[in-house]
Amino acid sequence: MAENPETKVKPVDTESVSVIPRHSEWRRVARVFFGRRLALIGFIIVMTLVLTAIFAPWIATHDPYKTDLRNKLAKPGREHFLGTDATGREAWPWDWQRRTLAAGYSPLS
Q: Whole-model pTM?
């Protein structure tokens, strides 16, 4: 069987040909990462803790160390979101302070 020189495939010089990828490498990494449910849940938890730590001064509006004996053991309401403890301290800033510490120490564990 004789080969036809017109139909013969010629070798391509790979150094002179540049292939442009359809998607960037970051897009591929994001697609693989966010396609995994457990990785996505972990990412959401970590980002929630980080954002809580960053915005804690604006979220917890009361001073956690300030005591108000007239409002001790107050029920949750408009002024005291989570109520107060036995010394009249606001419970909301204490909760946010614990979350801030948890976000700060979570990379260490």
A: 0.48
